[in-house]
Amino acid sequence: MARIGFIGLGNMGLPMAQNLLGSGHAVTGFDVVKASVGRLSAANGAAATSVADACAGAEVVITMLPAGAHVRAVYDGPQGVIASAAPGTLLIDSSTIDVQSARAVASAAEGKGFAMLDAPVSGGVGGATAGTLTFMVGGGEQAFAKARPVLEKMGKNIVHAGASGNGQAAKICNNMILGVSMIAVSEGFMLAKRLGLDAQKLFDVASTSSGQCWALTNYCPVPGPVPTSPANRDYQAGFTAAMMLKDLMLAQQAANAAGASTPLGAEAAQLFNLFVNSGNGAKDFSGIIRMLDGK
């Protein structure tokens, strides 16, 4: 089993680190929120007082941070991961950040002799807790092979997406599809409502015909047809609208940089921006149906 330094023990990072502990790995964790470090200690993890402390003696360092600026600071700073990790340490960033930052940090790490992977996740807090996350991994083949046994303790689907930055690219493309499709599904149900068509009847038709998609069959935005969807618990978040907006904005940033045309992605970003700025950032992203319904 490996000695792992884990930096970033928030809603996603903490359960991920706890799953590593539960599988027998030795985990030393650091977070700027001391209470989060305390919760890791309560699960028999070791508490670090700094990024450098978390890296000391680690064979693998994993980070789960809010944005590209945080990742750059944690890796590139004078007391950061690159300066503090021992030679041969495998570096894995599971944050969801912009592709440019992911590639820049990987280049800096590789320039100092480290193998680094970008490995953002899909599956939300529930998947992090259950250990069923999907990892989309960018980086070298050898680093991926070395990381896989560790990632498998936190996730169920581990996909090597290609070179550095491609994990982030896969994540933002996937979530752009999800954001657009959730709006489309919501619009369909709102049109059905105004035409006098029962939501369950529309679900029965669309879920077994050409309108079928994940947003409909797994995360239906109206109460009733899918009992486990957030619509049945007042849109208590599995994946917040604020996080969806973040991913859509990252997709737009990448599209602009790459010269890609994504008009539906751009419109989805605008609609989620309106929804979040109306005070709904903490609600599940499927709750956007309420805004589309005029509520």
Describe the structure.
The protein is of the alpha/beta class. It has helices at residues 13-22, 34-42, 51-55, 68-76, 81-84, 99-111, 124-130, 141-151, 166-194, 199-206, 214-217, 241-258, 263-280, 288-292, and strands at 3-7, 26-30, 46-47, 60-63, 90-93, 115-118, 121-122, 133-138, 155-162. Strands 3-2-1-4-5-6 form a six-stranded parallel sheet, sandwiched between helices. Helix 9 packs across helix 12. The chain is elongated. The model has no long low-confidence stretch (mean pLDDT 97).
Describe the secondary-structure layout.
Blueprint: E1 3-7, H1 13-22, E2 26-30, H2 34-42, E3 46-47, H3 51-55, E4 60-63, H4 68-76, H5 81-84, E5 90-93, H6 99-111, E6 115-118, E7 121-122, H7 124-130, E8 133-138, H8 141-151, E9 155-162, H9 166-194, H10 199-206, H11 214-217, H12 241-258, H13 263-280, H14 288-292
Parallel strand pairs: 1-2, 1-4, 2-3, 4-5, 5-6, 8-9
Antiparallel strand pairs: 7-8
Helix pairs in contact: 1-7, 4-6, 9-12, 9-13, 12-13
Structural class: alpha/beta
Strand content: 5-15%
Unreliable sequence segments: none
Number of helical regions: 14
Tally of strands? 9
Rg, nearest Å: 20 Å
Give the neighbour order of strands across the main sheet. Answer: 3-2-1-4-5-6
Q: What is the H-and-E element order?
A: EHEHEHEHHEHEEHEHEHHHHHH
Calculate the terminal CA-CA distance, rounded to whole Å: 52 Å
The average pLDDT is 97
What proportion of the residues is helical, as a percent range?
40-55%
Largest sheet: 6 strands, parallel
> What is the molecular shape?
elongated
